[in-house]
């Protein structure tokens, strides 16, 4: 009996251990299903050259459902939109070769590393343009293989043209020389500017002046023979576009201009080379990239589906303002009204008017703030701001001097100079000065394509008045046509209409010359000083020079005055200055606290090759009574230097956008909301600086 009982217990024990994995060999082995090839059911990968894939895929997704739920596949679904159509479809196909790898005979084939590297070389800058890291699952060294290891081409099936472009077959020179006359998304715009910088690194540099309300970069590209630094006596000018997000032609023209300057300089165009070598040109294609996004989406919506029912949305104002619904060209400090209130005071001036402290307690847009800091930090001489909705060049003032604020001709002290600047652009434009071609509400006031802003339509807070009254910069507003968002097919024509005007306007301050006492038109002036003005028939106006002390050191902040014009300019860091003037005889003086005033008489001929050189040497002395009286009648330079003295801008930004939304917007790129979804891990691998 005992033996039978022991056998029974042994059988029972072995039975209970049969499924216990702790006992090796006691459990029945689990048979796992062998992976097999299956049809590609990922919709964004269905155009691959193969039809069979396998799971787990290369990055470990075990099922199609797991792959579809991942941030990697989400990126592939929106990458075309994020990059503005650039690098499509090769980036998507490259990602699909990892998420849905090619399967043959029950095994996954390996995509080729060489193809991956070619796509990354071409498209890496497009990701940089939107501040996104190159996706980890498209790491060429980690997930792609060499031909020696046996691999397949993930871009198989593309057309010959697409394959050549994706594989970098085109020589870099040819690839960069093509200007595409189409609209550019924000990502495409930044990518073009970055490529232009790379292509012409000896004369071009990009830099950011800040970010928009939604976090988009405000990117500038500059051209100079020494990009990145101010050179003594080399004038600086700027072109600014897209202040109103729905007025996009200026934005496009400035993108084309950047490419044109790079291309023509390298091709040996002597005119372009002379311009770039003699001038530092700053180009800001878009002040309002957030508004542009809204405007572009509005145009697409108006063209989608409704025309068959005879409907079309009115897109005339969609995207005009920034993301905070601020009209940026009404958001600058109203210094013109300050001038009008003080014009009866003895010794009043119209230059370097300080920003009233009260301004900072209002709604200051981040774009406005960035532009103000920019123009205060660079000694700009000349500027043009591009808009749409009319065909005319407008010049200051924009605010009417009429006591009831009715439209009225309201000139600046430099009215003749501004009329000359406006005529230069209008006359060089293909049609602007032709009366029959003019459009919009300015037609009733336009004179050969130019108009005084306040006479046409008075408004406060504009950028061109601020430039003139707060800095040395003379700015005009160029209205490029009545169609604010023209179709692609009109862009080439618009470029041809504006190309000469863009170059000729910049040449107004270009300067490169030598002068000797025997030069033609040289002239001896009063105060025992001989001034040489060398002249060749071109279109340069004004004077430039250096204000020094007796030891030869440049004096920063010295004032250069012209008799009869209540508007001074001040010297830059090394004592150099530029003063736009019309032809004629001018009495010019230089002064600075602690120095005696120096004065010269200068004759400027009607046609000049460059700005006349007029230097001053100031002698130490007790402050002159007239200088002291003038200083007492206006805010001091110390007051002028006050910029947001109470840090009110930062307080406003914190108060209006509240807590974490503003903080995340500042810390994360604008596209982050696509991927930061509730209940899913945040794909921090997309962040460049994580």
UniProtKB/TrEMBL annotation:
It comes from the Eukaryota. Gene3D superfamilies: Carboxypeptidase-like, regulatory domain, Frizzled cysteine-rich domain, Zn peptidases. Residues 32-154 form the FZ domain. One of its GO terms (molecular function) is metallocarboxypeptidase activity. GO terms for cellular component: extracellular space. PROSITE patterns: CARBOXYPEPT_ZN_1, CARBOXYPEPT_ZN_2, FZ, PEPTIDASE_M14. One of its GO terms (biological process) is peptide metabolic process. Pfam families: CarboxypepD_reg, Fz, Peptidase_M14. Residues 182-509 form the Peptidase M14 domain. Its cofactor is Zn(2+). SMART domains: FRI, Zn_pept. The active site is at residue 479. Disulfide bonds join 116-140. Residues 1-16 form the signal peptide. Keywords: Carboxypeptidase, Disulfide bond, Glycoprotein, Hydrolase, Metal-binding, Metalloprotease, Protease, Signal, Zinc. PANTHER family: CARBOXYPEPTIDASE Z, PROTEASE M14 CARBOXYPEPTIDASE. Belongs to the peptidase M14 family. This is Carboxypeptidase Z-like isoform X1. It comes from Betta splendens. The lineage of its organism: Eukaryota, Metazoa, Chordata, Craniata, Vertebrata. The gene is LOC114841889.
